[in-house]
Amino acid sequence: MSSNAMSDLAAATAPPPAGPPALALRGLWKRFGTKVAVAGIDLDVPTGSFYGLVGPNGAGKTTTLSMSTGLLRPDFGEVRVHGQDLWAAPIQVKAMLGVLPDGVRLFDRLTGRQLITYAGLLRGMDRDTVGERAQDLLEALDLVADATTLVVDYSAGMTKKIALACALVHAPRLLVLDEPFEAVDPVSAANIRTILATYVRDGGGTVIVSSHVMDLVQRMCDHVAVIAAGHVLAAGTVDEVRGVGSLEDRFVELVGGRSTGEGLAWLRTSSD
Ligand SMILES: Nc1ncnc2c1ncn2[C@@H]1O[C@H](COP(=O)(O)OP(=O)(O)OP(=O)(O)O)[C@@H](O)[C@H]1O
Predict the structure, then answer these.
(1) Domains and CATH numbers, the chain
(2) Name one GO biological process term (predicted).
(3) What is the reported pTM?
(4) Residue 59 near ligand 1, beta carbon < 6 Å
């Protein structure tokens, strides 16, 4: 066999070259006054993964996700989305992102349908496509009956769902969702999980979710990172990180801090 033919064969049988990660964080730092919120985070989120970000309250999850999506400028470090530097090319990179931020503020004097439409038009989509997708999203998220209700009159869970619809409407390559299931009822949460799993499996998208619910992350995600005090304590596939036990056990082992409640004797009112 000629050396050319051999190299052709090698090229044909070799695995396709891996593209850059959907999200790559390098040396990310953020300080608020004297408080270091994120202390040098490195993280690779593989393309096509369903990635969970877990950590105790105040660990730096929201700060990390805000810096990863262009909502907050890092003090140091680099954010790359599908290989492109976020802070060097924010407009191109943001076009690839769908974001559900923490404590989202919406134009809540619009109705649910108007808000999704507005989000789609802002993304440069044509009105017909936006209209079709708005209807699909309202149906998938069980919001059809409230499509003409002002968002200001939505419950917390409905607000979360309409914000998620706005993040999804332009079919982004990378979805970054800060606590997407908070305040959402179990049926809607299951629907959202199905939408996200399909988006990863069939649509080639990547999802990053932050959550405090370990069981949910263990069942839903294929990768996970445990963050505490602004550092990554463990990251990898869910099976790698959890080892032989549950993710919750591993989380408590890594993060520690279980309290016995002994200092709250005064709460035992029956001892009066
Ligand atoms: N704008 C801000 N100004 C001052 N400190 C801040 C600010 N944002 C976050 N912090 C601090 O940075 C740390 C990390 O906060 P962050 O919101 O990123 O944590 P988190 O992991 O998302 O927490 P939680 O799980 O409770 O939502 C906390 O100590 C918080 O008090």
Answers:
(1) 20-96+173-240 (3.40.50.300), 104-171 (no CATH)
(2) response to antibiotic
(3) 0.88
(4) yes
